[in-house]
Structures are given as structure tokens and as C-alpha cells.
């Protein structure tokens, strides 16, 4: 008959191993805590110094430009880049010391997790920089489009500018997510289909709604050298002196009144030019 194991010996052996492991772990834990304490002091000190230096050299002026972006204003938050950079530096340094502390503990799973997080931080920083630049570029393009539309008297200039801003901002966000390691293939496909439909619908609708304005702009291009202020002309039965000529209309002084014609009238109606 096989003899049963001695339970007392098993318990004593197990307890002995646990005590030995605990005794070995305590010094490693104390040393790891000491490393974290040093890391906190170093990270905090460098973060404070970096924040003050960046603030003095005017680095926050970039953040002031971001605060002027409409989408940032809607969030009702203030971006101060010197604080953001100092915080990123603080956590990046702390992660480095946490990695050393976990290696000291000898726990492989925790060490592997922290190392992956440390490797991810640079990608996240690059993605954040891309997003910041993208917002500034999108806002600049939006302002340029609004200015151009207003100069040509195109209606809904702000709406067109907002659409352009959203388009470039979404492209920036997708690129930043890709840089951060996020799979954006499905997002890109959905965005392309959505934007294609929106652009087609907007182009068709806006084309019908603005056909008269476009006709006036084309008429301005073809007739800009034929007519000038001070000339006396007759459009159908209305005779008068040109006192104003812009990209969409022509104004005639007819006696005591003034008559305004859309520029396309110069193409579609009978026009007579008289000597001064």
C-alpha cells in the first residue's frame, strides 16, 4: 500500500518557500520604491523648469493661435502649450523610471506592459503634434476660402469655409490616429464615401442656386475691358452713365435716379455705347 504524503511537511515546505520569496521580494520592493521616488523628483523638477523656460521664450504664442480657432473656442478651454509639454515630459520620464522599477521587482508581465507603454508614447507625441499643425492649417485654409468667396460676392462664404475646415480637420485626425498605431482603413473608406456624396450633393445644389451669380462672374471676366466708369451706354430702353461697376452688377445714372443691372444683362440684352 502506497504511503500518503505527510501534510505537515508539505505545509511547512510551502510556508518556507513563501517566506523566502517574501524576504527576497521586500528588498527589491524597497529599491523599486526608492527608484520611483527619485524618478518623481527628477521628473517634477525638469517639468517645472521646462514649463518656465518655454513660457519665457514665448512658446505659448502658438497655443494662443490655437485658442483663436473656432472649434477650440466652442470647447471653452484654454490651451497652454508650455504646461502641456511639461506634463508630457513629466510622464515620459516617470515611465522610464517605472520601467526600471518593474525590472527591479522581477515581475515580467508588469515590465512587458510598461515597456509597451513607453514605446507608444513617442507615437502619441507625434500624433498630437500632427493634430495641432492640422488644426492651424485647416483654420488658415478656411479663412482664405472665406476671404476669396467674399471678394467674389459668393453667398454662404462662412458655410463653405466651415465645410473646407471640417474636411481638412477630419483628414488630419485620421492621419494622427494612423500615426498613433490605430487601424484607420475602415474609417478612411467611410470618410471617402461620405465626402464624395456630400461634395456631389453640394455641387449640384449650389450650382443650381448660384447659376445667376456665376453668370455675372463670367460676364465680368468677358466684359472687364469693354466698359468703364464714366461711359454712357443704353441697355434695352434704359440709357445712362456708368457710375459703378463690380464683379456682379453695373449701376447707371439715369437722370435723377439710378438703375442697377446684373452683369449678365451685358451678355443677354442689347447694349449701345455712346461717345461722351
Word description of this protein:
Helix 1 (7-56) packs antiparallel against helix 4 (81-105), helix 4 (81-105) runs antiparallel to helix 5 and helix 5 packs antiparallel against helix 6. With 276 residues, the protein is an alpha+beta fold. The model has no long low-confidence stretch (mean pLDDT 75). It has a 5-stranded antiparallel beta sheet with strand order 4-3-2-1-5. The longest helix is centred in the N-terminal third of the chain and has 50 residues, at 7-56. The chain has helices at residues 7-56, 60-67, 70-74, 81-105, 108-151, 157-179, 185-209, 211-223, 265-268; strands at residues 232-235, 238-245, 249-254, 257-262, 271-274.
Secondary-structure map:
Blueprint: H1 7-56, H2 60-67, H3 70-74, H4 81-105, H5 108-151, H6 157-179, H7 185-209, H8 211-223, E1 232-235, E2 238-245, E3 249-254, E4 257-262, H9 265-268, E5 271-274
Antiparallel strand pairs: 1-2, 1-5, 2-3, 3-4
Short structural summary:
The chain is α+β, with helices and mostly antiparallel strands and 276 residues long. The protein is built from 9 helices and 5 strands, in the order ααααααααββββαβ.
What structural class do the secondary elements suggest? alpha+beta
- What overall geometry do the principal axes of the alpha carbons give? elongated
Work out the radius of gyration: 35 Å
Instruction: Average the pLDDT over all residues and give the rounded result.
Output: 75
Helix share of residues? over 70%
Q: Give the topology string: H per helix, E per strand.
A: HHHHHHHHEEEEHE
The main sheet comes to: 5 strands, antiparallel
Instruction: Name the beta content range.
Output: 5-15%
Order of the strands making up the biggest sheet: 4-3-2-1-5
Number of strands: 5
| Uncertain regions spanning at least 5 consecutive residues | none
Count every helix, treating DSSP H or I runs of 4 or more residues as helices. Answer: 9
Termini, distance in Å?
Answer: 135 Å
Amino acid at each position: 500500500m502506497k504511503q500518503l504524503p505527510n501534510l505537515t511537511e508539505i505545509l511547512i515546505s510551502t510556508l518556507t518557500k513563501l517566506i523566502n520569496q517574501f524576504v527576497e521580494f521586500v528588498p527589491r520592493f524597497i529599491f523599486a520604491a526608492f527608484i520611483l521616488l527619485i524618478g518623481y523628483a527628477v521628473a517634477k523638477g525638469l517639468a517645472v523648469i521646462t514649463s518656465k523656460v518655454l513660457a519665457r521664450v514665448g512658446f505659448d504664442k502658438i497655443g494662443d493661435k490655437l485658442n483663436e480657432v473656432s472649434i477650440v473656442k466652442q470647447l471653452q478651454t484654454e490651451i497652454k502649450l508650455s504646461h502641456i509639454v511639461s506634463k508630457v515630459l513629466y510622464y515620459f520620464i516617470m515611465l522610464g523610471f517605472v520601467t526600471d522599477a518593474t525590472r527591479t521587482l522581477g515581475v515580467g508581465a508588469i515590465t512587458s506592459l510598461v515597456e509597451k507603454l513607453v514605446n507608444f508614447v513617442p507615437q502619441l507625441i507625434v500624433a498630437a503634434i500632427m493634430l495641432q499643425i492640422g488644426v492651424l492649417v485647416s483654420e488658415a485654409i478656411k479663412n482664405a476660402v472665406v476671404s476669396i468667396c467674399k471678394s467674389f460676392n459668393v453667398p454662404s462664404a462662412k458655410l463653405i469655409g466651415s465645410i473646407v475646415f471640417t474636411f481638412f480637420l477630419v483628414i488630419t485626425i485620421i492621419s494622427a490616429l494612423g500615426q498613433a498605431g490605430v487601424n484607420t482603413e475602415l474609417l478612411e473608406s467611410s470618410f471617402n464615401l461620405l465626402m464624395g456624396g456630400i461634395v456631389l450633393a453640394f455641387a449640384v445644389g449650389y450650382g443650381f442656386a448660384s447659376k445667376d451669380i456665376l453668370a455675372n462672374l463670367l460676364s465680368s471676366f468677358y466684359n472687364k475691358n469693354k466698359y468703364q466708369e464714366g461711359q454712357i451706354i443704353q441697355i434695352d430702353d434704359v440709357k445712362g452713365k456708368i457710375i459703378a461697376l463690380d464683379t456682379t452688377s453695373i449701376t447707371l445714372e439715369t437722370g435723377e435716379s439710378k438703375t442697377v443691372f446684373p452683369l449678365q444683362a451685358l451678355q443677354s440684352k442689347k447694349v449701345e455705347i455712346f461717345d461722351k
